[in-house]
């Protein structure tokens, strides 16, 4: 079963200084932090802020290619978690044919923002997710979830949804 999520915002991990995309389910009960690279976070932030670049960035190019092929992105799904690595699928429809494309979640999320398509996380991924090993052993998943759920818009800085 898939849970529909929205990008709540971007923040920096205070321990690793790596960007985190914070997903929150539309019902407001589940939170999923996904650590991403700086370039991927920038691609997401550019779209959140609706910043126009002089030339198409990679995810803009992908959007242009899909639109040129008259394909639509039906949804993206964070569908697996193995060895602390998240996996995603981009579900594309063209001429009535639905196909899935393997993707890093950060790229799928950046594309989802540009294509204005829904974001889902497999329920098993939500249940099996745990705090990054960069956090101290004393920090539990429940503590992180509680911390993330309590974030205000000011805590998320300028990259909030």
User: Which CATH top level class fits?
Assistant: Alpha Beta
CATH topology: Bifunctional nuclease domain
Decide which structural class fits the backbone. Answer: alpha+beta
What CATH architecture do you see? Answer: Roll
State Rg.
16 Å
At the fourth CATH level, what is the homologous superfamily? Answer: Bifunctional nuclease domain
> What fraction, in percent, of the residue positions are helical?
25-40%
> What distance separates the N and C termini?
25 Å
How many strands in all? 7
The low-confidence runs, each spanning 5 or more residues with pLDDT under 50, are 131-140
The 3D shape can be described as globular
Order of helices and strands: EEEHHEEEHEHH
Largest sheet, described in full?
Answer: 7 strands, mixed
Q: Tally the helices: what do you get?
A: 5
Query: Strands of the largest sheet, in order across it?
Result: 3-2-1-7-4-5-6
Strand content: 25-35%
Give the overall average pLDDT: 86
Question: Characteristics of this structure?
Answer:
161 residues; alpha+beta; Bifunctional nuclease domain
Task: Offer a concise description of the structure.
This protein has 161 residues and is of the alpha+beta class.
Write up what this structure looks like.
With 161 residues, the chain is an alpha+beta fold. The protein has one domain (2-149): Bifunctional nuclease domain. The protein has 5 helices and 7 strands. It has helices at residues 38-48, 58-68, 105-115, 123-128, 141-149; strands at 2-12, 19-25, 31-35, 72-82, 85-94, 97-103, 119-122. The chain has a 7-stranded mixed sheet with strand order 3-2-1-7-4-5-6, with helices on both faces. Strand 2 and strand 3 (31-35) form a beta hairpin. The chain is globular. Residues 131-140 have low confidence and may be disordered.
